[in-house]
Specification:
It is built from 5 helices and 7 strands, in the order H-E-H-E-E-H-E-H-H-E-E-E. It has a 7-stranded antiparallel β-sheet, with helices on both faces. The relative contact order is 0.13.
């Protein structure tokens, strides 16, 4: 009888130990999956960051390079630059003096192949698109920040009016210095 109890006790201990080992094994598998997931995401993020930072480049640009010269309002270009990203995506930064009403009318009158996803006319905005773009440049593309430093002047302007007018394939965002009429114009190409 004592032998049976000992055998039963050993069997019970054995099964309990196996269950603990099994549970510990499952925990280790889940932990490994989580760590592999984190490492993969970090590697992907680093690859994307590297591609953006190292494969992007800048060049000079005018509004005539984007829109045909027909209808472009009279303006005095102060500064401009285009950042070309991988995959044929770009952002253009302009600083110019022009009549705000003329510029907004020009943007509203632009033709688009997709009126369903385009604005029919300009709209006032809160400027979040411009702010988000500048934050992105600061965080992910610090090497290019210096080249568009003129656009960061928006952050120190006392009174700014913001507008947007998206006409596929371009998103147009404007920040207008109310005091002196300077227009900061961001044009982004939509992803196709």
């Amino acid at each position: 009888m004592i032998n049976n109890i000992i055998i039963l006790l050993l069997t019970l201990i054995f099964f309990c130990s196996c269950e603990r080992v099994k549970n510990k094994g499952e925990e280790l598998v889940e932990l490994s999956k989580t760590e592999i997931d984190k490492a993969s995401k970090k590697a992907w993020d680093n690859t994307v960051d590297f591609a953006l930072e190292e494969l992007s480049y800048t060049e000079k640009i005018t509004l005539k390079d984007i829109y045909s010269s027909k209808g472009i309002p009279e303006l005095k270009l102060v500064e401009s630059i285009q950042i070309n990203y991988p995959l044929s995506f770009y952002s253009c930064y302009f600083k110019y003096k022009a009549d705000k009403v003329d510029v907004l009318k020009f943007l509203s009158d632009l033709n688009t192949a997709f009126p369903d996803i385009s604005d029919s006319k300009y709209q006032e905005s809160n400027g979040k698109e411009i702010k988000k773009n500048l934050e992105f440049i600061e965080l992910k593309m610090s090497k290019l920040k210096k080249e568009i430093s003129f656009f960061f002047e928006i952050n120190s302007i006392e009174k700014v009016e913001y507008f947007r007018c998206n006409k596929y394939p371009h998103a147009n965002y404007l920040a207008v210095d109310v005091k002196n009429g300077t227009i900061y114009h961001l044009i982004e190409k939509y992803w196709d």
